[in-house]
Design brief:
Elements (H helix, E strand, L loop, with lengths): L4 E4 L12 E8 L6 H17 L4 E3 L27 H13 L2 E11 L2 E9 L5 E6 L5 E2 L2 E2 L13 E4 L2 E5 L8 H8 L5 E3 L5 E2 L1 H26 L2 E4 L3 E4 L14 E4 L3 E3 L5 E4 L6 E8 L1 H9 L2 H4 L17
Parallel strand pairs: 1-18, 2-3, 3-4, 10-11, 11-13
Antiparallel strand pairs: 2-18, 4-5, 5-6, 7-8, 9-10, 12-15, 13-16, 14-15, 16-17
Helix pairs in contact: 1-2, 3-4
Length: 319
């Protein structure tokens, strides 16, 4: 395994008696065809992050495999695993050993014919607290997720862990302000967004900078609007998924843009990873900043919940 570059950011606020500090960690790596190798490398990154002081850790989306949704192929259902299963069992051992919380993004086999894109939440005791199943499922060129994933039925959730109250949403969920709001309304102090997003290489020159900027900006806006920390681990590497003939289903593949980041409740980027290097980002977060943000910018106080009924409609045709 290539040695991961590790970034440990300085404190974002001076030490004080009121400080409630937690160190979060996110990882980014490239994935190949060998599931066992991918899992082992991810476990090593998590263990290193825990050794370096990470208290709440989060993987990128679907870390155990290549991003197989580049094609619609029934073979790839064999990549799914149960929860509990091999990945959660291995991560529970790390969580228990280092007293760290882990958010693990997995291709879940729930039952025969029922599969989800799922985040498993493991507490610092090694206990599986529960799962969040991705609610918004995309269907775009090379991102054919509707073929594989049943939309989530867990609703939007937060968990009170040993080190703070967290919520997790998954990749395409990151574009929806309703998802962030409903998770924050349950008290989440940190929102994690395990992600697999990248460029179509043929489009990168024309649209690449704007696409990345939009992705980062929308999540920073969730941090501001909800007064919470946001952390988004994203994979790296140029991935070609092969068809049954052994040839790439798309000659260009997807170039995942990495650039995993952590945002403060005021939207400032506290750390950003590289485009193409395997990395661990560790960021100390003062959770008192959540209360500070929500009282100084009291968006939750001023919400007009009596006026938002139209949000449950697909579109307002009464205009």
């Amino acid at each position: 395994m290539a040695k991961a570059k590790r970034k440990i950011h300085q404190k974002i606020n001076p030490a004080s008696a009121d400080r409630q500090s937690v160190t979060i960690g996110i990882t980014q790596m490239a994935c190949g065809e060998d599931v066992r190798d991918n899992r082992n490398r991810q476990l090593k990154l998590l263990e290193q992050a825990a050794k370096d002081g990470g208290q709440i850790l989060c993987t990128q989306e679907l870390f155990a495999s290549q991003y197989f949704c580049q094609s619609e192929d029934h073979r790839f259902f064999n990549l799914a695993e149960t929860i509990p299963g091999p990945s959660t069992e291995a991560m529970s051992k790390i969580a228990r050993k280092y007293k760290t919380v882990i958010v693990a993004s997995l291709f879940e086999r729930r039952a025969a014919g029922l599969y989800h894109n799922t985040a498993a939440i493991i507490d610092a005791t090694g206990e599986l607290l529960g799962v969040y199943r991705k609610m918004h499922i995309p269907d775009d060129p090379l991102f054919y997720e509707k073929f594989y994933f049943t939309p989530g039925d867990t609703g939007f959730r937060s968990w009170r862990t040993a080190h703070g109250i967290i919520g997790t949403l998954i990749c395409w969920d990151q574009w929806f302000p309703e998802a962030a709001r409903l998770t924050a309304m349950q008290g989440a102090q940190i929102l994690f967004y395990p992600t697999a997003i990248g460029w179509h290489p043929s489009e990168k020159k024309e649209y690449g900078a704007a696409q990345h900027d939009s992705w980062e900006t929308v999540m920073r806006s969730h941090a501001i609007a909800n007064g919470c920390f946001v952390a988004a681990p994203n994979r790296i590497g140029l991935e070609h998924v092969n068809g049954v003939d052994g040839k790439p289903v798309n000659p260009d593949g997807i170039q995942f843009w990495g650039q995993s980041f952590v945002s403060a409740p005021d939207g400032r980027i506290l750390q950003r990873a590289s485009v193409d290097r395997q990395e661990i980002l560790l960021q100390e977060c003062d959770l008192t900043r959540v209360e500070f943000s929500r009282t100084h910018w009291p968006f939750l106080r001023d919400r007009r919940i009596d006026a938002y009924g139209q949000l449950v409609k697909r579109f307002d045709d009464a205009r």
